[in-house]
Every structure is written in structure tokens, then in C-alpha cells.
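Workshop exercise sheet. Pairs work together: one partner reads the sequence aloud, the other fills in the structure field after running the prediction. Swap roles for the next sheet.
Pair: D.N. / O.F.
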Amino acid sequence: MIGYVTLGTNDLARATAFYDALVGAMGGKRLMSFDRGHAWGVSMAQPAIGVMTPFDGKPATVGNGVMIALACPDPATVDRLYAKAIELGGTDEGKPGPRGPGFYGAYFRDLDGNKLNFFCMTAG
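Structure field:
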């Protein structure tokens, strides 16, 4: 049902480098570019993530309680991508591990403070 999500940035060049590397590690690529930002994904037929400077020209801010969840096929991929996000300058919001029956996740914030997680569903 979700077509794409957009996160705000106040430093487009820095955010672009972060997401080029992170989405590249996920097997995706930059799909679209605009004056104010970019969108990444694996194909135009699947959901994408965009990073943009705000249309209204005001500073980008993060939403309290807002989080983007990025699906992974297995716990090893969650671990690998979380480590990549931290390596790229992201900050820890919850190290990889089980979060209840059948759910494995890892939480981080990007360079602008937006909260994301990598997760997978597991047996159990």
C-alpha cells in the first residue's frame, strides 16, 4: 500500500551521501533526483524512500513518534545494514535483537535525526 515515504533534511549533500551508501548496501539505488532531493529504491514498481529539503523553505524537523521501517529478509541482513547505518554516522536507537515473538529489529537515526529501523519477521 505504501508507495513512498519522504524524510526532511537540512543538509542535502550530506543526506544524499548517507542514503546513496545505505540504500546501495540494501541493493537499491537512486531512482529519481529533484532540485530539493532524491528518491531511492529497488525499482519504480516498489516502495521508495525520499529525502528532501522542505517545500515551504522552513527547516526540516523530525516527528516525535514517526519512524520508517525498512524490511529485510533475515536477522543477518538487519545486523549488517544497522552496522552500515552506524558506520555512516547514524546514531543508535536500539541495537539489533528480538523485539517479541517473531520480530527482529534494529533502530537508528539518520544524520538529520529521522528515526528508522531495519526489521524482519522470524519464526517464533
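Discussion prompt: The mean pLDDT is 96. What would you look at next?
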